[in-house]
Amino acid sequence: MSTLTPTTSATAATAAADPAAVDVPRSPLNTTYLRLDVRRVLRNRRTLVSTIVMPVVFYVIFGVGQEDAASRAYVMISLGVYGAMVAATSVGASVAVERASGWSRQLRLTPLRPATYVVTKVLAAATIALLPVAVEFVVGAVSGARMPARAWVVGGVVAWLGSLVFAALGLAVGYLLPSENAMQILGAAMSVLAMLGGLFVPLFLFPHLMQRIAQFTPAYGVGVLARYPLTHDGSVLGGVVNVVAWAAVFSVGAALLFRRDTARV
Protein backbone atom coordinates (compact mmCIF):
# COMPACT_ATOMS: atom_id res chain seq x y z
CA MET A 1 0.00 0.00 0.00
CA SER A 2 1.11 3.53 -0.54
CA THR A 3 1.04 6.86 1.24
CA LEU A 4 -1.25 9.35 -0.43
CA THR A 5 -0.48 13.06 -0.09
CA PRO A 6 -3.41 15.46 -0.46
CA THR A 7 -2.92 18.31 -2.91
CA THR A 8 -4.43 21.71 -2.48
CA SER A 9 -6.37 23.23 -5.33
CA ALA A 10 -7.09 26.90 -5.80
CA THR A 11 -10.78 26.25 -5.27
CA ALA A 12 -10.26 24.43 -1.98
CA ALA A 13 -7.83 27.07 -0.75
CA THR A 14 -10.32 29.83 -1.51
CA ALA A 15 -13.08 27.92 0.22
CA ALA A 16 -10.95 27.45 3.32
CA ALA A 17 -10.18 31.15 3.49
CA ASP A 18 -13.73 32.29 2.79
CA PRO A 19 -16.46 29.60 2.85
CA ALA A 20 -19.03 32.06 1.52
CA ALA A 21 -16.95 32.63 -1.60
CA VAL A 22 -17.68 29.17 -2.95
CA ASP A 23 -21.15 28.10 -3.92
CA VAL A 24 -21.32 24.40 -3.10
CA PRO A 25 -24.39 22.49 -4.29
CA ARG A 26 -26.62 20.99 -1.61
CA SER A 27 -26.64 17.62 -3.35
CA PRO A 28 -24.68 14.77 -1.70
CA LEU A 29 -22.18 14.84 -4.58
CA ASN A 30 -19.55 17.45 -5.32
CA THR A 31 -18.17 16.67 -8.77
CA THR A 32 -15.30 19.14 -8.44
CA TYR A 33 -13.97 17.52 -5.29
CA LEU A 34 -14.53 14.07 -6.78
CA ARG A 35 -12.49 14.97 -9.85
CA LEU A 36 -9.69 16.40 -7.73
CA ASP A 37 -9.62 13.32 -5.48
CA VAL A 38 -9.45 10.91 -8.43
CA ARG A 39 -6.70 12.94 -10.11
CA ARG A 40 -4.72 12.98 -6.87
CA VAL A 41 -4.78 9.20 -6.66
CA LEU A 42 -3.90 8.74 -10.34
CA ARG A 43 -0.82 10.93 -9.91
CA ASN A 44 0.51 8.65 -7.18
CA ARG A 45 2.72 6.11 -8.94
CA ARG A 46 3.10 3.86 -5.91
CA THR A 47 -0.66 3.50 -5.68
CA LEU A 48 -0.93 2.59 -9.35
CA VAL A 49 1.82 0.00 -8.99
CA SER A 50 0.20 -1.70 -5.99
CA THR A 51 -3.32 -1.68 -7.42
CA ILE A 52 -2.76 -2.26 -11.16
CA VAL A 53 0.76 -3.48 -11.89
CA MET A 54 1.13 -6.04 -9.09
CA PRO A 55 -2.14 -7.93 -9.81
CA VAL A 56 -1.09 -8.16 -13.46
CA VAL A 57 2.34 -9.46 -12.44
CA PHE A 58 0.66 -12.07 -10.23
CA TYR A 59 -1.55 -13.10 -13.16
CA VAL A 60 1.43 -13.43 -15.48
CA ILE A 61 3.21 -15.60 -12.89
CA PHE A 62 0.31 -17.77 -11.77
CA GLY A 63 -2.32 -17.46 -14.51
CA VAL A 64 -0.64 -17.47 -17.89
CA GLY A 65 1.03 -20.79 -17.18
CA GLN A 66 -2.30 -22.56 -16.56
CA GLU A 67 -2.92 -25.32 -19.07
CA ASP A 68 -6.51 -24.48 -20.03
CA ALA A 69 -8.27 -21.21 -20.81
CA ALA A 70 -10.87 -21.61 -18.04
CA SER A 71 -8.16 -21.90 -15.39
CA ARG A 72 -6.57 -18.71 -16.69
CA ALA A 73 -9.96 -17.03 -16.45
CA TYR A 74 -10.35 -18.25 -12.86
CA VAL A 75 -7.04 -16.68 -11.85
CA MET A 76 -7.85 -13.53 -13.82
CA ILE A 77 -11.15 -12.96 -12.02
CA SER A 78 -9.64 -13.65 -8.60
CA LEU A 79 -6.82 -11.17 -9.14
CA GLY A 80 -9.26 -8.64 -10.59
CA VAL A 81 -11.17 -8.83 -7.32
CA TYR A 82 -7.92 -8.46 -5.39
CA GLY A 83 -6.79 -5.41 -7.38
CA ALA A 84 -10.17 -3.73 -6.96
CA MET A 85 -10.29 -4.31 -3.21
CA VAL A 86 -6.76 -2.96 -2.74
CA ALA A 87 -7.56 0.12 -4.85
CA ALA A 88 -10.80 0.87 -3.01
CA THR A 89 -9.20 0.37 0.38
CA SER A 90 -6.33 2.69 -0.52
CA VAL A 91 -8.69 5.50 -1.45
CA GLY A 92 -10.77 5.03 1.68
CA ALA A 93 -7.73 4.89 3.96
CA SER A 94 -6.35 8.11 2.50
CA VAL A 95 -8.49 9.95 5.06
CA ALA A 96 -5.83 9.00 7.63
CA VAL A 97 -3.26 11.05 5.73
CA GLU A 98 -5.74 13.88 5.25
CA ARG A 99 -6.46 13.97 8.97
CA ALA A 100 -2.76 13.99 9.85
CA SER A 101 -1.95 16.80 7.41
CA GLY A 102 -4.86 18.97 8.54
CA TRP A 103 -6.59 18.68 5.16
CA SER A 104 -9.77 17.27 6.71
CA ARG A 105 -9.90 20.19 9.15
CA GLN A 106 -9.49 22.62 6.26
CA LEU A 107 -12.35 21.01 4.39
CA ARG A 108 -14.62 21.42 7.41
CA LEU A 109 -14.14 25.18 7.10
CA THR A 110 -15.70 25.03 3.65
CA PRO A 111 -19.38 24.49 2.75
CA LEU A 112 -18.52 20.88 1.90
CA ARG A 113 -20.91 18.78 3.99
CA PRO A 114 -19.73 15.65 5.84
CA ALA A 115 -22.15 13.49 3.84
CA THR A 116 -20.76 14.90 0.61
CA TYR A 117 -17.21 14.17 1.75
CA VAL A 118 -18.02 10.52 2.51
CA VAL A 119 -20.01 10.00 -0.72
CA THR A 120 -17.18 11.55 -2.72
CA LYS A 121 -14.64 9.21 -1.11
CA VAL A 122 -16.78 6.17 -1.93
CA LEU A 123 -17.28 7.27 -5.54
CA ALA A 124 -13.56 8.00 -5.91
CA ALA A 125 -12.83 4.52 -4.60
CA ALA A 126 -15.27 3.03 -7.12
CA THR A 127 -13.67 4.98 -9.95
CA ILE A 128 -10.14 3.89 -9.09
CA ALA A 129 -11.24 0.29 -8.40
CA LEU A 130 -12.54 0.01 -11.97
CA LEU A 131 -9.01 0.38 -13.37
CA PRO A 132 -7.40 -2.83 -12.03
CA VAL A 133 -10.45 -4.87 -13.05
CA ALA A 134 -10.39 -3.48 -16.59
CA VAL A 135 -6.62 -3.91 -16.98
CA GLU A 136 -6.67 -7.43 -15.53
CA PHE A 137 -9.47 -8.52 -17.86
CA VAL A 138 -7.75 -7.05 -20.92
CA VAL A 139 -4.49 -8.80 -20.06
CA GLY A 140 -6.42 -12.02 -19.43
CA ALA A 141 -8.21 -11.85 -22.75
CA VAL A 142 -4.96 -11.19 -24.62
CA SER A 143 -3.16 -14.05 -22.84
CA GLY A 144 -5.79 -16.67 -23.61
CA ALA A 145 -8.31 -16.57 -20.77
CA ARG A 146 -11.64 -17.77 -22.15
CA MET A 147 -15.13 -18.03 -20.66
CA PRO A 148 -18.76 -17.33 -21.67
CA ALA A 149 -19.70 -13.72 -22.39
CA ARG A 150 -21.98 -13.66 -19.34
CA ALA A 151 -19.05 -14.64 -17.12
CA TRP A 152 -16.97 -11.76 -18.47
CA VAL A 153 -19.70 -9.22 -17.74
CA VAL A 154 -20.86 -10.54 -14.37
CA GLY A 155 -17.34 -11.28 -13.17
CA GLY A 156 -16.11 -7.80 -14.02
CA VAL A 157 -19.11 -5.96 -12.58
CA VAL A 158 -19.13 -7.96 -9.34
CA ALA A 159 -15.37 -7.54 -8.87
CA TRP A 160 -15.80 -3.79 -9.36
CA LEU A 161 -18.91 -3.13 -7.26
CA GLY A 162 -17.84 -5.60 -4.59
CA SER A 163 -14.81 -3.41 -3.94
CA LEU A 164 -17.08 -0.85 -2.28
CA VAL A 165 -17.14 -3.14 0.75
CA PHE A 166 -13.43 -2.47 1.11
CA ALA A 167 -13.82 1.25 0.51
CA ALA A 168 -15.88 1.25 3.70
CA LEU A 169 -13.16 -0.77 5.43
CA GLY A 170 -10.55 1.74 4.29
CA LEU A 171 -12.62 4.64 5.64
CA ALA A 172 -13.04 2.90 8.99
CA VAL A 173 -9.32 2.21 9.34
CA GLY A 174 -8.48 5.71 8.13
CA TYR A 175 -10.53 7.23 10.94
CA LEU A 176 -9.29 4.72 13.49
CA LEU A 177 -5.52 4.68 13.00
CA PRO A 178 -2.80 7.32 12.56
CA SER A 179 -1.56 7.85 9.01
CA GLU A 180 1.82 6.22 9.69
CA ASN A 181 0.07 2.96 10.66
CA ALA A 182 -3.06 2.80 8.49
CA MET A 183 -1.43 2.04 5.15
CA GLN A 184 1.05 -0.50 6.48
CA ILE A 185 -1.59 -2.40 8.42
CA LEU A 186 -4.03 -2.39 5.52
CA GLY A 187 -1.38 -3.56 3.07
CA ALA A 188 -0.73 -6.67 5.12
CA ALA A 189 -4.43 -7.12 5.92
CA MET A 190 -5.45 -7.12 2.25
CA SER A 191 -2.98 -9.89 1.44
CA VAL A 192 -4.20 -11.99 4.36
CA LEU A 193 -7.87 -11.45 3.48
CA ALA A 194 -7.19 -12.30 -0.17
CA MET A 195 -5.47 -15.52 0.87
CA LEU A 196 -8.22 -16.52 3.30
CA GLY A 197 -10.93 -15.58 0.81
CA GLY A 198 -9.57 -17.86 -1.90
CA LEU A 199 -8.24 -15.16 -4.22
CA PHE A 200 -4.64 -16.35 -4.19
CA VAL A 201 -5.20 -20.07 -3.72
CA PRO A 202 -8.40 -22.00 -4.61
CA LEU A 203 -10.27 -22.88 -1.45
CA PHE A 204 -10.55 -26.58 -2.29
CA LEU A 205 -6.79 -26.81 -1.67
CA PHE A 206 -7.29 -25.67 1.94
CA PRO A 207 -7.94 -28.04 4.86
CA HIS A 208 -11.64 -28.45 5.64
CA LEU A 209 -11.47 -26.23 8.72
CA MET A 210 -9.84 -23.40 6.73
CA GLN A 211 -12.52 -23.72 4.07
CA ARG A 212 -15.18 -23.21 6.73
CA ILE A 213 -13.37 -20.23 8.22
CA ALA A 214 -12.90 -18.68 4.76
CA GLN A 215 -16.67 -18.43 4.29
CA PHE A 216 -16.79 -15.82 7.05
CA THR A 217 -14.01 -13.59 5.72
CA PRO A 218 -14.69 -10.34 3.77
CA ALA A 219 -13.10 -11.33 0.43
CA TYR A 220 -14.90 -14.68 0.21
CA GLY A 221 -18.32 -13.43 -0.89
CA VAL A 222 -17.06 -11.13 -3.65
CA GLY A 223 -14.77 -13.86 -4.99
CA VAL A 224 -17.51 -16.50 -5.07
CA LEU A 225 -20.02 -14.19 -6.77
CA ALA A 226 -17.50 -12.93 -9.34
CA ARG A 227 -16.40 -16.45 -10.31
CA TYR A 228 -19.79 -18.17 -10.12
CA PRO A 229 -20.79 -17.68 -13.79
CA LEU A 230 -17.54 -19.44 -14.71
CA THR A 231 -17.31 -22.17 -12.06
CA HIS A 232 -20.88 -22.56 -10.75
CA ASP A 233 -19.12 -23.39 -7.51
CA GLY A 234 -20.18 -22.13 -4.09
CA SER A 235 -23.42 -20.64 -2.86
CA VAL A 236 -24.74 -17.45 -4.46
CA LEU A 237 -26.95 -16.81 -1.44
CA GLY A 238 -24.03 -17.36 0.88
CA GLY A 239 -21.91 -14.98 -1.16
CA VAL A 240 -24.58 -12.28 -1.11
CA VAL A 241 -25.07 -12.64 2.65
CA ASN A 242 -21.31 -12.40 3.16
CA VAL A 243 -21.01 -9.23 1.07
CA VAL A 244 -24.03 -7.53 2.65
CA ALA A 245 -22.97 -8.44 6.18
CA TRP A 246 -19.42 -7.15 5.82
CA ALA A 247 -20.59 -4.03 3.98
CA ALA A 248 -22.89 -3.29 6.92
CA VAL A 249 -20.16 -3.93 9.50
CA PHE A 250 -17.59 -1.74 7.76
CA SER A 251 -20.10 1.01 6.91
CA VAL A 252 -21.39 1.26 10.47
CA GLY A 253 -17.85 1.25 11.78
CA ALA A 254 -16.83 4.01 9.36
CA ALA A 255 -19.90 6.10 10.27
CA LEU A 256 -19.26 5.82 14.01
CA LEU A 257 -15.58 6.63 13.68
CA PHE A 258 -16.37 9.52 11.34
CA ARG A 259 -18.74 11.02 13.93
CA ARG A 260 -16.12 10.60 16.63
CA ASP A 261 -13.53 12.33 14.46
CA THR A 262 -15.77 15.26 13.52
CA ALA A 263 -16.87 15.71 17.14
CA ARG A 264 -13.30 16.69 18.03
CA VAL A 265 -13.48 19.83 15.92
Q: Radius of gyration, Cα only, in angstroms?
A: 19 Å
By DSSP (H or I, 4+ residues per run), the number of helices equals 12
Q: How much β-strand is present in the residues?
A: under 5%
* Amount of helix: over 70%
Q: Which H/E pattern describes the elements?
A: HHHHHHHHHHHH
What is the mean predicted local confidence, pLDDT?
84
- Beginning-to-end CA distance, first to last residue: 29 Å
User: What class do helices, strands and sheet pairing give?
Assistant: mainly alpha
Backbone shape: globular
Low-confidence stretches: 1-25
The tally of domains stands at: 1
Number of strands: 0
Most strands sheet:
none
What attributes does this structure have?
265 residues; mainly alpha; globular; disordered N terminus
A few lines on this structure:
The protein has helices at residues 10-17, 31-42, 45-62, 69-101, 103-108, 114-142, 149-162, 164-176, 179-196, 208-214, 218-231, 236-262. It is built from twelve helices and no strands. Mean pLDDT is 84; it is low at 1-25.
How are the SSEs ordered, and which strands pair?
Layout: H1 10-17, H2 31-42, H3 45-62, H4 69-101, H5 103-108, H6 114-142, H7 149-162, H8 164-176, H9 179-196, H10 208-214, H11 218-231, H12 236-262
Helix pairs in contact: 2-6, 3-4, 3-6, 4-6, 4-7, 4-8, 4-9, 4-11, 6-7, 6-8, 7-11, 8-9, 8-12, 11-12
Describe the protein in words.
It is a single chain. The protein is an all-alpha fold and 265 residues long. It has one domain (26-262). Helix content is 75%, strand content 0%. The chain has helices at residues 10-17, 31-42, 45-62, 69-101, 103-108, 114-142, 149-162, 164-176, 179-196, 208-214, 218-231, 236-262. The longest helix has 33 residues, at 69-101. The two termini are 29 Å apart.
